[in-house]
Amino acid sequence: MARLVPLLTDRDPVLVALAAAALGSHRRQLGGHAAARVLDGRGLAALARAPADHPRLPEARSDVLLGLAADAVGLGRTARARSLTAAEADGPDPGWRGRIRRGWLAAEVELGAGRAAAALDPARAAHAAAVDSGSTRHRVKSAMVLGAALAAVGAGAEALPLVTGALTDAGEAGLLPLRWPCLLLLAALDPAAAARHAEDAERVLHCVLRHADPPGRELAVASPWLPTSDFVVGPNR
Q1: Structural domain for 79, as ranges
Q2: Residue 115 domain-assigned?
Q3: Is residue 45 part of a domain?
Protein backbone atom coordinates (compact mmCIF):
# COMPACT_ATOMS: atom_id res chain seq x y z
CA MET A 1 0.00 0.00 0.00
CA ALA A 2 2.72 2.44 0.94
CA ARG A 3 4.39 1.84 -2.41
CA LEU A 4 1.21 2.29 -4.42
CA VAL A 5 0.05 5.66 -3.10
CA PRO A 6 3.01 7.70 -4.45
CA LEU A 7 2.43 6.19 -7.89
CA LEU A 8 -0.98 7.87 -8.05
CA THR A 9 0.82 11.12 -8.89
CA ASP A 10 3.41 9.66 -11.24
CA ARG A 11 4.08 11.39 -14.55
CA ASP A 12 3.22 8.21 -16.48
CA PRO A 13 -0.61 8.08 -16.75
CA VAL A 14 -0.60 4.34 -17.43
CA LEU A 15 1.37 3.72 -14.24
CA VAL A 16 -1.11 5.95 -12.40
CA ALA A 17 -3.97 3.83 -13.74
CA LEU A 18 -2.29 0.55 -12.80
CA ALA A 19 -1.57 1.82 -9.28
CA ALA A 20 -5.12 3.10 -8.86
CA ALA A 21 -6.53 -0.25 -10.01
CA ALA A 22 -4.26 -2.17 -7.62
CA LEU A 23 -5.22 0.09 -4.72
CA GLY A 24 -8.88 -0.27 -5.67
CA SER A 25 -8.50 -4.05 -5.57
CA HIS A 26 -7.14 -3.83 -2.03
CA ARG A 27 -10.13 -1.73 -1.00
CA ARG A 28 -12.60 -4.16 -2.57
CA GLN A 29 -11.03 -7.08 -0.69
CA LEU A 30 -12.05 -5.28 2.50
CA GLY A 31 -15.57 -4.55 1.25
CA GLY A 32 -14.86 -0.95 0.28
CA HIS A 33 -16.51 -0.98 -3.14
CA ALA A 34 -17.44 2.71 -3.11
CA ALA A 35 -13.90 3.71 -2.17
CA ALA A 36 -12.53 1.39 -4.84
CA ARG A 37 -14.82 2.97 -7.43
CA VAL A 38 -13.23 6.36 -6.77
CA LEU A 39 -9.77 4.90 -7.32
CA ASP A 40 -10.75 2.99 -10.44
CA GLY A 41 -12.41 6.11 -11.82
CA ARG A 42 -9.21 8.02 -11.18
CA GLY A 43 -7.31 5.38 -13.09
CA LEU A 44 -9.70 5.56 -16.03
CA ALA A 45 -9.40 9.35 -16.14
CA ALA A 46 -5.61 9.08 -16.17
CA LEU A 47 -5.74 6.89 -19.27
CA ALA A 48 -7.23 9.76 -21.26
CA ARG A 49 -3.72 11.28 -21.17
CA ALA A 50 -1.92 8.07 -22.14
CA PRO A 51 -0.17 7.75 -25.51
CA ALA A 52 -1.96 5.29 -27.77
CA ASP A 53 1.21 3.27 -28.30
CA HIS A 54 2.05 2.78 -24.62
CA PRO A 55 2.93 -0.94 -24.28
CA ARG A 56 0.93 -1.39 -21.07
CA LEU A 57 -2.16 0.57 -22.14
CA PRO A 58 -4.28 -2.54 -22.94
CA GLU A 59 -3.46 -4.04 -19.54
CA ALA A 60 -4.22 -0.81 -17.68
CA ARG A 61 -7.47 -0.23 -19.59
CA SER A 62 -8.64 -3.74 -18.74
CA ASP A 63 -7.65 -3.34 -15.09
CA VAL A 64 -9.61 -0.14 -14.50
CA LEU A 65 -12.70 -1.18 -16.47
CA LEU A 66 -12.92 -4.56 -14.77
CA GLY A 67 -12.23 -2.87 -11.45
CA LEU A 68 -15.16 -0.53 -12.06
CA ALA A 69 -17.29 -3.53 -13.01
CA ALA A 70 -16.36 -5.30 -9.77
CA ASP A 71 -17.19 -2.14 -7.84
CA ALA A 72 -20.59 -2.03 -9.53
CA VAL A 73 -21.28 -5.68 -8.66
CA GLY A 74 -20.50 -4.97 -5.01
CA LEU A 75 -22.75 -1.93 -5.04
CA GLY A 76 -25.65 -3.87 -6.55
CA ARG A 77 -25.46 -2.13 -9.93
CA THR A 78 -25.58 -5.22 -12.09
CA ALA A 79 -26.61 -3.49 -15.32
CA ARG A 80 -23.72 -1.05 -14.98
CA ALA A 81 -21.32 -3.92 -14.31
CA ARG A 82 -22.56 -5.73 -17.41
CA SER A 83 -22.00 -2.61 -19.52
CA LEU A 84 -18.46 -2.19 -18.20
CA THR A 85 -17.49 -5.80 -18.81
CA ALA A 86 -18.80 -5.51 -22.37
CA ALA A 87 -16.76 -2.34 -22.92
CA GLU A 88 -13.63 -4.03 -21.60
CA ALA A 89 -14.11 -7.08 -23.82
CA ASP A 90 -14.48 -4.80 -26.84
CA GLY A 91 -10.96 -3.44 -26.38
CA PRO A 92 -7.46 -4.71 -27.16
CA ASP A 93 -6.20 -7.99 -25.74
CA PRO A 94 -5.03 -7.32 -22.16
CA GLY A 95 -3.01 -10.53 -21.91
CA TRP A 96 -3.65 -13.72 -19.95
CA ARG A 97 -4.23 -11.97 -16.64
CA GLY A 98 -6.88 -9.67 -18.05
CA ARG A 99 -8.59 -12.51 -19.88
CA ILE A 100 -8.89 -14.50 -16.65
CA ARG A 101 -10.24 -11.49 -14.75
CA ARG A 102 -12.73 -10.94 -17.58
CA GLY A 103 -14.10 -14.42 -16.91
CA TRP A 104 -14.38 -13.73 -13.18
CA LEU A 105 -16.36 -10.57 -13.75
CA ALA A 106 -18.61 -12.10 -16.38
CA ALA A 107 -19.47 -14.86 -13.91
CA GLU A 108 -19.91 -12.48 -10.98
CA VAL A 109 -22.25 -10.27 -13.01
CA GLU A 110 -24.47 -13.24 -13.80
CA LEU A 111 -24.44 -14.42 -10.19
CA GLY A 112 -25.35 -10.91 -9.07
CA ALA A 113 -28.21 -10.87 -11.57
CA GLY A 114 -29.53 -14.19 -10.26
CA ARG A 115 -28.54 -16.03 -13.46
CA ALA A 116 -26.34 -18.72 -11.94
CA ALA A 117 -26.47 -21.05 -14.94
CA ALA A 118 -25.14 -18.27 -17.18
CA ALA A 119 -22.18 -17.82 -14.82
CA LEU A 120 -20.86 -21.33 -15.42
CA ASP A 121 -19.30 -20.92 -18.87
CA PRO A 122 -17.20 -17.82 -18.08
CA ALA A 123 -16.25 -19.28 -14.71
CA ARG A 124 -15.09 -22.53 -16.31
CA ALA A 125 -13.16 -20.64 -19.00
CA ALA A 126 -11.40 -18.51 -16.39
CA HIS A 127 -10.54 -21.56 -14.31
CA ALA A 128 -9.11 -23.44 -17.29
CA ALA A 129 -6.97 -20.46 -18.25
CA ALA A 130 -5.80 -19.96 -14.68
CA VAL A 131 -4.71 -23.59 -14.32
CA ASP A 132 -2.43 -23.08 -17.32
CA SER A 133 -1.19 -19.64 -16.21
CA GLY A 134 1.26 -20.68 -13.51
CA SER A 135 -0.23 -18.10 -11.12
CA THR A 136 -1.38 -19.57 -7.81
CA ARG A 137 -3.42 -16.49 -6.99
CA HIS A 138 -5.35 -16.62 -10.25
CA ARG A 139 -5.86 -20.36 -9.91
CA VAL A 140 -7.25 -19.99 -6.38
CA LYS A 141 -9.55 -17.09 -7.23
CA SER A 142 -10.78 -18.87 -10.36
CA ALA A 143 -11.57 -22.00 -8.37
CA MET A 144 -13.52 -19.89 -5.89
CA VAL A 145 -15.54 -18.20 -8.63
CA LEU A 146 -16.29 -21.52 -10.32
CA GLY A 147 -17.09 -23.10 -6.97
CA ALA A 148 -19.57 -20.33 -6.18
CA ALA A 149 -21.22 -20.71 -9.58
CA LEU A 150 -21.48 -24.48 -9.16
CA ALA A 151 -22.92 -24.09 -5.68
CA ALA A 152 -25.48 -21.62 -7.00
CA VAL A 153 -26.80 -24.17 -9.51
CA GLY A 154 -26.92 -26.93 -6.91
CA ALA A 155 -23.74 -28.72 -7.97
CA GLY A 156 -22.21 -28.69 -4.51
CA ALA A 157 -20.63 -32.11 -4.95
CA GLU A 158 -18.54 -30.76 -7.83
CA ALA A 159 -17.80 -27.50 -6.06
CA LEU A 160 -16.58 -28.99 -2.76
CA PRO A 161 -13.28 -30.58 -3.92
CA LEU A 162 -12.58 -27.56 -6.11
CA VAL A 163 -12.89 -25.11 -3.22
CA THR A 164 -11.09 -27.45 -0.81
CA GLY A 165 -8.14 -27.55 -3.19
CA ALA A 166 -8.23 -23.77 -3.54
CA LEU A 167 -8.08 -23.42 0.23
CA THR A 168 -5.03 -25.67 0.40
CA ASP A 169 -3.29 -23.75 -2.37
CA ALA A 170 -4.11 -20.41 -0.75
CA GLY A 171 -2.71 -21.59 2.57
CA GLU A 172 0.52 -22.87 1.05
CA ALA A 173 1.00 -19.60 -0.86
CA GLY A 174 0.11 -17.37 2.11
CA LEU A 175 -2.86 -15.83 0.29
CA LEU A 176 -4.81 -14.85 3.40
CA PRO A 177 -7.22 -12.46 1.60
CA LEU A 178 -8.40 -15.44 -0.45
CA ARG A 179 -8.42 -17.97 2.39
CA TRP A 180 -11.24 -16.48 4.44
CA PRO A 181 -13.79 -16.28 1.58
CA CYS A 182 -12.77 -19.82 0.62
CA LEU A 183 -13.56 -20.94 4.14
CA LEU A 184 -16.94 -19.22 4.11
CA LEU A 185 -17.77 -20.91 0.83
CA LEU A 186 -16.75 -24.24 2.36
CA ALA A 187 -19.01 -23.55 5.33
CA ALA A 188 -21.93 -23.41 2.91
CA LEU A 189 -20.79 -26.45 0.92
CA ASP A 190 -19.92 -28.66 3.91
CA PRO A 191 -22.64 -28.20 6.56
CA ALA A 192 -21.19 -30.88 8.84
CA ALA A 193 -18.03 -28.82 9.26
CA ALA A 194 -19.63 -25.40 8.86
CA ALA A 195 -18.85 -24.22 12.39
CA ARG A 196 -15.17 -25.13 12.08
CA HIS A 197 -14.87 -23.44 8.70
CA ALA A 198 -16.54 -20.29 10.04
CA GLU A 199 -14.19 -20.19 13.03
CA ASP A 200 -11.18 -20.58 10.76
CA ALA A 201 -12.50 -17.85 8.48
CA GLU A 202 -12.92 -15.49 11.43
CA ARG A 203 -9.36 -16.13 12.55
CA VAL A 204 -7.93 -15.55 9.08
CA LEU A 205 -9.98 -12.40 8.50
CA HIS A 206 -8.84 -10.96 11.82
CA CYS A 207 -5.25 -11.56 10.73
CA VAL A 208 -5.93 -9.80 7.41
CA LEU A 209 -7.44 -6.81 9.20
CA ARG A 210 -4.52 -6.55 11.61
CA HIS A 211 -2.22 -6.11 8.63
CA ALA A 212 -4.49 -3.67 6.79
CA ASP A 213 -3.87 0.07 6.85
CA PRO A 214 -6.20 2.19 9.05
CA PRO A 215 -8.44 3.34 6.16
CA GLY A 216 -8.78 -0.27 5.04
CA ARG A 217 -9.84 -1.39 8.51
CA GLU A 218 -12.41 1.41 8.66
CA LEU A 219 -13.84 0.31 5.32
CA ALA A 220 -14.05 -3.29 6.54
CA VAL A 221 -15.94 -2.29 9.69
CA ALA A 222 -18.43 -0.24 7.67
CA SER A 223 -18.83 -2.72 4.82
CA PRO A 224 -22.10 -4.58 4.36
CA TRP A 225 -20.19 -7.41 2.67
CA LEU A 226 -17.81 -8.47 5.40
CA PRO A 227 -19.08 -10.74 8.16
CA THR A 228 -20.58 -9.35 11.34
CA SER A 229 -19.05 -9.88 14.77
CA ASP A 230 -20.82 -13.23 15.05
CA PHE A 231 -19.55 -14.07 11.56
CA VAL A 232 -22.77 -14.14 9.61
CA VAL A 233 -21.98 -13.82 5.91
CA GLY A 234 -22.74 -10.38 4.42
CA PRO A 235 -24.51 -8.35 3.40
CA ASN A 236 -24.86 -7.72 7.12
CA ARG A 237 -26.34 -4.23 7.29
Answers
A1: 1-94
A2: no
A3: yes
Instruction: Kindly list the distances between the CA atom of residue 19 and the CA atoms of 39, 64, 97, 158, 162, in Å, as whole numbers in the listed order.
Output: 9, 10, 16, 37, 32
Number of domains in the chain: 1
E strand or H helix at 57: helix 57-74
**172-206 pLDDT, tens digit each:** 999 999 999 999 999 999 999 999 999 999 999 99
Instruction: Give the model's pLDDT for residue 233.
Output: 45
CATH of the domain at 10: 1.25.40
Question: Which pTM was predicted?
Answer: 0.92
CA-CA-CA-CA torsion for 48, 19, 26, 220, nearest 10 degrees?
-70
Low-confidence ranges of the chain (pLDDT < 50): 230-237
Single-letter amino acid, residue 156: G
183 assigned to some structural domain? no
